[in-house]
Amino acid sequence: MKSLNNILIIFLVTILTINLSYSQEKRMHSSKYSQELIETLSSYQKELIEKERKYLIKQREAIRKTFSIDQKKVIDDSTLSYNQKINKIIPSFSSDQKELIEKYHKRIDTIRKKFYNSLTETQRALIKKKRKKSKKND
Q1: Which of 24, 45, 81, 84 could form a cystine bridge with 41, CB 3.0-4.6 A?
Q2: Do 135 and 86 contact (CB within 8 A), yes or no?
Q3: Is the distance from CB of 71 to CB of 89 less than 8 angstroms?
Q4: Where are the domains of the chain?
Q5: Cα(83)–Cα(128) distance, integer angstroms
Q6: What is the per-residue pLDDT across 72-104, written as a single tens digit (0 to 9) for each?
Q7: What is the value of pTM for the model shown?
């Protein structure tokens, strides 16, 4: 009886572990765009999305390089939640850091406007559909 319980526990743990790793992998590869929308995107639109992603990565790296020692300590503090870290970091930004962020926002806005202007009516409908679904889940 004892060995049967052990086998059952091992089996359940294995099933849960596989399920957890599958869901994490699925979430890691998911996109904020639906697969249906991605299939309808032109090469120009895909290029704009990729350009936005690359610029976002560069922006984050540039901001991280400007962090002071105190700002790095706040970020590395594991006792603070994400929102608490943001609430402490943002007021501590220097004028140079704020200017860097402002430049990023302007650049990203132009990329997003180009992307939005290039969308067809079908693509816009797909985006609205995805937004409605996400709002239902909130």
Answers
A1: 45
A2: no
A3: yes
A4: 1-30, 32-137
A5: 28
A6: 888 888 898 889 888 888 888 888 888 988 888
A7: 0.57
